[in-house]
Amino acid sequence: MYDVELIELNKKYRNVIAVEDVSLNIKQGEFLFLLGPSGCGKTTILRMIGGMEEPTTGMVRIQGEDVSNIPPEKRVTSTVFQNWALFPHKTVSENVGFGLAMQKIPKATIKAEVTKYLEMVGLADLSNRYPNQLSGGQKQRVALARALIVKPAVLLLDEPLSALDLKLRNQMRFEIKRIQRKLAVTAIFVTHDQTEALAMADRIVIMNKGRIEQIGTPSEIYFNPMTKFVSDFVGEMNFLQCKLVKQNADTTTVELSDNCRIDVASTHSNQNKTQVTIGIRPEKIFVKREPSVSDGCILLEGKLEEITFLGQLLRFHVTFEGNMIIVDDFGGVNRALRYQESENVYMEINPKDCLLIPDHNDNL
Amino acid sequence: MKAGIKKDNWIYKLSEIYRKNRFLIMFMPALILVSFFFFVPILSLLRISFFKYTGMGMFEPGFTLENYIKFLTDPFYLQVIWYTIKIAFSVTMICIVVGYPVAYYISCMTGKWKIFLLLLIIIPLWTNLIVRIYGWFVILGRQGLLNSILIKLNLIDEPISLVFTTGSVVIGLLDNVFPWILLIMISVLEGIEWDIIEAARDLGASRIKSFYEITFKLSLPGIAVAGLFAFVWSVGEYAVPSLLGASSNRTISIEIADQMLNLLNWPFGASMAFVLFAISVSVLLINNWLTSRSNIGH
């Protein structure tokens, strides 16, 4: 049985469709990410699971029970809000103990539980502070402890790390994941940050304009994007328009440029089309000066427009037949070669790294 | 320090003085204005309140507490003080009890209707106070709207007197104070973030419980300020009680005006003014004490 089931969920605000036909099943203990640009409906889905928002049509089931018309206080979900939404007039321990106090649990029990959860998030010595006396990271931990203390079946996290700086965000990612594993709680995490999703998720749901684009594990999403949107949104992707030459059962032959034909894996049918889109990740292209080519690879000639130093990598912008192609070089070998801007270079590509990008996801 | 500028250069010295005292310097114009037009008159009035009245608008400098003793012991004046406080307290309570739900409702609204309701609150404030007070005569007078309605409905046989009563004073004061109190309370309630209430609901608080735990508790300091505002205003108001009140029910302000303008007993008038001032200040202090004690304001 699934912990959370969304069945043909729709949400309309007047004329705006926020969520359209979303169906999704989430297993017990799973860490699921809703990833998408702002306004894609991911937060609305989370709010419908939490009961802050009612679906226009469709059903939300939690542990098999239809909760569509049940108010948030009666649901077994609890939420970590985007700006943490701590109660400013209550101390850290009152904030954390709030959920238990609402259940009329004896004070001594609450006190013990609050201590336990504050220790878990590493804030035991700040129990008498007020929220405005805490740093962003500490507020984040209070919000997490406050949501977890009621032992929710489903933990909902609405961009909880977006207000933290990069270092702290990385640290909290690790910590949230550790706690989620330890408590084996089903968690749904909303974010627009793909790195966050790739780093923490068991499964990622990519959303766009209120619809699901793709559901999959981080590596499935990254290596086998099913739509152009997914491939563009998660990681960097170079797109090349190619002529379709021949479509076979498991390979498709395309023409990258004159006399340069490659076979790529067929992921979907492209019948009745003359043009298809090929995608290739920047780190899968190798820039060279000499036109030497490895086995099974092809070589494209382009003009180096710009080199950007990004710390762990060098990013090249190369123009090839009117397309701007991004190449990421993590190796550092090329750094020694001291490329000059506006010189001619060769890009080595292995056809196996090329993806045939569909315009739509036919599976959803 | 840049090269070429000597430390003993007078421009450098002047700029140092400015840099170190710039807040004081910026504060100066306001300070001078307030000192001359507020503190000086108030303090000279305070001095006068200790002078001895010698009759016929004359008083001799000195130090006597007799004005204060007279005001605070004479049963007639004690009754005046009590009546003033009673009226101000009623106005405050009505403002808060009636105003809170209205303010809550408006603060939850959005869009056109909210602007419309806010305008309904603000527009009366554009009307002159005296005009509004006389407006109440049209409604409450013996030939007034309310009396004719009550007669039409056969609830009374003949006109009853509704003006020149404690009730009409309270109504007049409410007319003055209530819009402001509403505006204060609306802004207080609007300042409470919606996601905090959602967080409470999410953690198992019912609608009513989350209202009490979050909205109500968070709005208390603001409500206290609104109440303070209503009380201080009502306790010192002159025009409303003197025009709408009965001649037998006098407030401190009326007494002060009477002593100073008609009887020319400035020392006594001044001492009453300072008792009124002391009442306002003590209410302010009690308010602060209650607010800080109940752990609000964080």
Q: What do you see in this structure?
A:
The complex is a heterodimer of chains A (364) and B (298). By secondary structure, chain A is α+β, with helices and mostly antiparallel strands. Chain A has two domains: 2-228, 3-Layer(aba) Sandwich (Rossmann fold), CATH 3.40.50; 236-357, Nucleic acid-binding proteins (OB fold (Dihydrolipoamide Acetyltransferase, E2P)), CATH 2.40.50.140. Chain A has helices spanning 42-50, 92-102, 107-120, 136-148, 166-183, 194-200, 218-223, 228-233, 333-337, and strands spanning 4-13, 16-26, 31-35, 57-62, 65-66, 77-80, 154-158, 186-191, 203-208, 211-216, 238-247, 251-257, 260-265, 275-280, 285-288, 298-309, 314-320, 323-329, 344-349, 355-357. Chain A has a six-stranded mixed sheet, with helices on both faces. A five-stranded antiparallel sheet of chain A has the order 13-12-11-14-20. Chain A is elongated, with a radius of gyration of 25 Å. The model of chain A has no long low-confidence stretch (mean pLDDT 90). By secondary structure, chain B is mainly α. Chain B folds into two domains: 1-48, no CATH class; 66-294, MetI-like (MetI-like fold). A two-stranded antiparallel ribbon of chain B has the order 1-2. The mean pLDDT of chain B is 90. Classes of the chains: A alpha+beta (364), B mainly alpha (298). Chain A binds chain B through residues 50-52, 71-74, 77-79, 81-83, 85-89, 98-99, 102-103, 130-132, 146-147, 150, and chain B through 193, 195-196, 198-207, 209-210, 213-214, 217-218, 295-296, 298.
